[in-house]
Amino acid sequence: MKACPFCGGEAKLVKITDGYTTNPVTIRNKWTVKCVSCNVDIGIFSSEIFEDVEGGLCIRKQGGVDAINAWNTRNE
Ligand SMILES: [Zn+2]
After folding, report:
1. Which end of the chain has a smaller Cβ tally under 10 Å, C or N?
2. Per-domain residue ranges for the chain?
3. How many CB atoms lie within 10 A of CB 47?
4. Does pTM top 0.85 for this prediction?
5. CA distance 55 to 25
């Protein structure tokens, strides 16, 4: 993870919310990457993992990975 483009501070992946629904079982979390020094963040990215009919877990969206990628490629 790159340092903060504004202050050079340490950046951290943060889970904002946990979500869980049943039938089918689906886990939806929201993520961001933020600077621990100046608090700037990259915006909110969602992840979604659901259980398929055979009980396997399928990842539909990887919010944590998307947030890190967005942070690392921002241009400011
Ligand atoms: Zn910063």
Report:
1. C
2. 11-73
3. 20
4. yes
5. 9
Residues around the ion ligand 1 (C-beta < 5 A): 4, 6-7, 9, 35, 37-38
- pLDDT band for position 23 (50/70/90)? confident
Name the strand (E) or helix (H) holding 24: none
Ligand 1 centroid to residue 63 C-alpha, Å: 21
- What is the mean pLDDT of the segment spanning 48-73? 95
Task: Measure 44 CA to ligand 1 centroid, in angstroms.
Answer: 17
C-beta of residue 12 within 8 angstroms of C-beta of residue 36: yes
Spatial distance between the Cα atoms of 31 and 42, rounded to a whole number of angstroms: 10
CA 56 to each of CA 11, 13, 31, 67, 68: distance values in angstroms, whole numbers, following the listed order = 33, 26, 23, 25, 26
